[in-house]
Amino acid sequence: MHVAPVKRSKLHLQTVGLVVLLTAVSWSCSRSAQLIRARPFSEPQLQTISDLPHLHDAATLSGHFVRSVRVYRVTALRMERRPNRIDPDPVTTTVPIILSLAAETRLADLPAGSPEANAVALYLHATRYLEWATHLFGDRIDFNSQENYRDIELLITDPAIGDTQYITSPNRFLIASGSSVPVGLVAHEMGHRLFWIMEDQLAPVLAGPNDLVHCGILEYFTASFANDPFVPVGPPLLNRDVSLPVRYPEGLETIAQTADRFRRSYGTHFAEQPWHAQYAEFLSTLRGDAAKRLDGHRSGLVIAHPLWRARVRLGAAKLDALVVAALRRLPEIIFESRRRLPPTLTKNAPSKAQWFDLLAALLSVGEERSVFLEEFRRVGFDATAVAAAFPKVASENIIR
Predict the structure, then answer these.
(1) How distant, in Å, are the alpha carbons of 97, 110, 222, 248, 336 from that of 132?
(2) What gap in Å lies between CA 291 and CA 63, rounded to an integer?
(3) Which 3 state secondary structure label does DSSP give 28?
């Protein structure tokens, strides 16, 4: 779920402009490949709490990227409508859970699904993603400039409240009692933090979170980091899998269609779990432009899917580097695409990056043009027209 950050632009004043930042990136594929994909305690060097990466204090799970993880038990939950927001906000009644953690605590001794195990897993997944993204985009990226997101709350709901992953945000994770924090969920929410930085720094060309290019690339990075195409959301019909076939434009979905998925996911459970009913009732009241607005998370699969298939063919490290390089090229490509592409594609197109801009950028940064053309064409995009407009790759842009 995307939750708009408060005064986001002020959070990133210390962030170097992304166009400059990306220029400093090492495009070496091996660097990305060396980073470990986060899995709960499966890294062999992690034996005790003190072995967690970038950790400063074991008791509070305080480290370089994550300042603290605080855990609470949720005894009541309701949804509250806020002005100028599509998503309602969860309002919780909580009781603090005091964790029993020390530097010498063995990770293997933490019971699966316990507050301690979930807190440690949340710290590990978040730290590994932010570390991975920092290496991928360049060491000058500063996640710690997002001051409001360095302290993370883990809210564990009583069984009567039901599934709550759908209302998770980058600094507030809600999971059902006894379940485990999924790496894909953490990676997705940390991805929002990454894309808030990119959205701010590439404001002239990159649209916001209801945009299919924005969410498609974000979800590709979610799956690539987790090395798993499945992105858990909670409600069965809202879970996303970037490996599943999807077609453009049939795969685009509106907020109204997402509301219907939500209602159908829970069915008769609404009566037993009141907050579900409140959420469904709110979504059902959306009318006009709000209801017709694209749901970027669902619609972005038309971008994430061909990228995932290209990753399967080319390898994670290479495709990750190519996508980052394509993002670097977007400001220049948008100008060129509007000039070169036929009006059938560009007429009435928004000024922000569209699928054809992303494809043109991908075609301009690597030797694997045929892979991108085949995969974007498979989804239903007019890749042939883009290839004709961008027939060559400048030698200085090639990533091998």
Answers:
(1) 30, 26, 11, 31, 31
(2) 41
(3) coil
Instruction: Round to whole Å and give the CA distance between 71 and 75.
Output: 13
Pairwise CA distance, residues 40 & 135, whole Å: 21
Confidence of residue 38 (pLDDT cuts 50, 70, 90): very low
pLDDT digit string (tens) for 135-185?
Answer: 999 866 899 999 999 999 999 998 777 767 778 899 999 998 989 999 999
The pLDDT assigned to 290 comes to: 67
Q: What pLDDT shows up at residue 304?
A: 98
Residue 303 has which token pair? 């971008």
Q: Considering only CA atoms, which of 351, 345, 324 is closest in space to residue 390?
A: 345
Q: Quickly list DSSP for 169-208.
A: BTTEEEEETT----HHHHHHHHHHHHHHHHHHHTTTT---
Domain ranges of the chain: 1-186, 202-253+294-400
pLDDT mean over 232-259: 90
DSSP secondary structure letters along 93-150:
EEEEE-----TT-BGGGSPTTSHHHHHHHHHHHHHHHHHHHHHHH-TT--GGG-GGGS
61-109 pLDDT tens trace: 999 999 999 999 999 888 887 777 666 788 899 999 999 999 999 999 9
Report the alpha-carbon distance of residue 179 to residue 349 in Å, rounded.
44
Classify residue 45 by burial, with Cβ atoms within 10 Å: 0-12, 13-18, 19+.
exposed
Query: Are 214 and 207 spatial neighbours (Cβ–Cβ below 8 Å)?
Result: yes
Separation between Cα atoms, residue 375 and residue 393, nearest integer Å: 18
* Residues facing residue 156 across a β-bridge: 73, 175
Whether the predicted pLDDT of 23 surpasses 80: no
Does the predicted model carry a pTM greater than 0.85?
A: yes
